Amino acid sequence: MGFFTTLAIYGTIWSIGKFVEWMTPPEPGDQMEVKLPLTEEGVPLAICYGQTRLDKPFLLWWGDVHFKDITSYEQDDMFIGLDLSLGIGVANMNIWRIGAGDVTIWDGTGAWDGLGAPFDPVDGSYNIVGPVTNPVGYQPINPFGVFGEENSYGFFSSVGFLPSTFRDGRGIRWYPGDFYQLKNTYVASVTSPNTTSGYRGISHVVFQSPQVGFGPQIPPFNFDCGGFPDALNGEPTRVIGGNEANPAEVIYDLLTQPWGRAGLDISLFDTASFTLAAVTLHGEGVGSGMAGTVTSSSAVLDIIREILAQIDAIMYFNPFTGKVVLKL
């Protein structure tokens, strides 16, 4: 999956001076301040570029738990609603895989990925309901042995067998994290429509009370997800090798996007040099994949340094133009 790193960003502010010295930390300044999206508990959200494994999604909500007695198995079948955050919404966000523990419960390969699922224009979500091996029909997801102990017949079903007296949530909905998505109607129906958030700007997955098997515990969910920024050169060069983001686009995104990133004015940068780098990197097949947590702004430079080292590039201030240049 390419280049992986954990984003650990400490401090609060930094600025670009007359020359960007990459070997020593910059002095704090006033031009860059990340507006951090935090949970109610103060936990920062992840940010993912390229196809990246996110092992610890943040739990936004859980509830609507039901049990059904399975006499033939002498066990109770459990249904539960979950809302899990995949982090800050990045341009061209996608999701390829959903796992539970070491088992894949949904695998969106090729065209059958999150963006290939049916789109719901009402709330801006994608309805991910389909088997691992059949990319055509939208069938239940039933990998046996995912949940529960050995011989407990535990499995995951996105449709399940909820009795008619139970709320029939069903299915899995993925929200890519744009600023137009609305609240999930299932979550609103089992909580409160007035307090349910649409989590605009946050990519998240809602499990609408699926059947999760007979075991006493639910394995941790994990996701293959990530975005592909394309502010420099658009679609032609944003994806490298099928699943990696363009490093030049990632650097530019970290520096200029205001939501959970630096939010610097684009006039500070020689965008032509960044665009040339993006085209060159695409031609050479050099991509990036990373996932981590944004906690503040000062170490955005540290992340960029890692990317620069990976692509053998430098970034410097041009005193004649007054702009920052990216040079391979």
Written account of the structure:
This protein is α+β, with helices and mostly antiparallel strands. It has helices at 185-190, 235-238, 247-256, 271-284, 300-311; strands at residues 13-14, 32-33, 46-49, 52-54, 58-70, 75-88, 94-100, 103-107, 119-120, 125-127, 172-175, 202-207, 221-226, 239-240, 244-245, 290-293, 314-318, 323-327. It folds into two domains: 13-40 and 228-327, no CATH class; 55-225, no CATH class. It is built from five helices and 18 strands. Mean pLDDT is 75; it is low at 1-32, 130-139 and 161-169. It has a six-stranded antiparallel beta sheet with strand order 5-6-12-11-10-9, with no helix packed on it. The protein has a four-stranded antiparallel beta sheet with strand order 4-13-7-8, with no helix packed on it. Strands 1-2 form a two-stranded antiparallel sheet. The chain is elongated, with a radius of gyration of 22 Å.
Describe the structure in brief.
14% of the residues lie in helices and 27% in strands.
Output the strand order for the largest sheet: 5-6-12-11-10-9
The number of distinct structural domains comes to 2
Strand content: 25-35%
Structural class: alpha+beta
Blueprint (SSEs and pairs):
Elements: E1 13-14, E2 32-33, E3 46-49, E4 52-54, E5 58-70, E6 75-88, E7 94-100, E8 103-107, E9 119-120, E10 125-127, E11 172-175, H1 185-190, E12 202-207, E13 221-226, H2 235-238, E14 239-240, E15 244-245, H3 247-256, H4 271-284, E16 290-293, H5 300-311, E17 314-318, E18 323-327
Helix pairs in contact: 3-4, 3-5
